[in-house]
Amino acid sequence: MDGLWQRLDTAARNLFPLGLALTALLVGAMPLYLPGYGMVAPNLTLMVVFYWAIYRPDLFPAAVAFAIGLVQDALMGTPMGLNALVLLAVYGVVTTQRRFFQGKSFAVIWSAFLFVAFAAGFLGWLVMVAFGAALIDPMPGIFAALLTIVIYPLVTWLLARIHHAVFPVGVHVSR
What we know:
- Helix content is 76%, strand content 0%.
- The model has no long low-confidence stretch (mean pLDDT 88).
- The chain contains eight helices and no strands.
- The relative contact order is 0.14.
- The protein has one domain.
């Protein structure tokens, strides 16, 4: 029976980053009845994908980032594949630079996130312009990126607390 509980514990821990990403997605998709908020809402899933791509890509593969993006597109009413493309691009860039991020201060990681958030917003805007074959106002996307950057420290602090509670130092969780 101990083996069964250990396997269940390992499976739950392995699925935990996915569960946090889905939670962030649902929280971000909740309607707040504030005029114009939906256009400038922070991208919580972007923060979660960025975090797990740095700290535990073994538990958060590219396919998960892509799937989260598709679900986000379906919930938000954006063109199917838009957020999947953006999150996959972010995941790819961050995982290729993962060695750079290891051991760096929060200020360095936050600075990198600043560039990633604006690049993700720009990529999303480009796809929307191409999809609609018309120029659209970039200001809501810029404000959304700024709001995402501003609340990133709080979300990362929360993710780090949860991460270290679920995956304590010295506990190895394997696939």
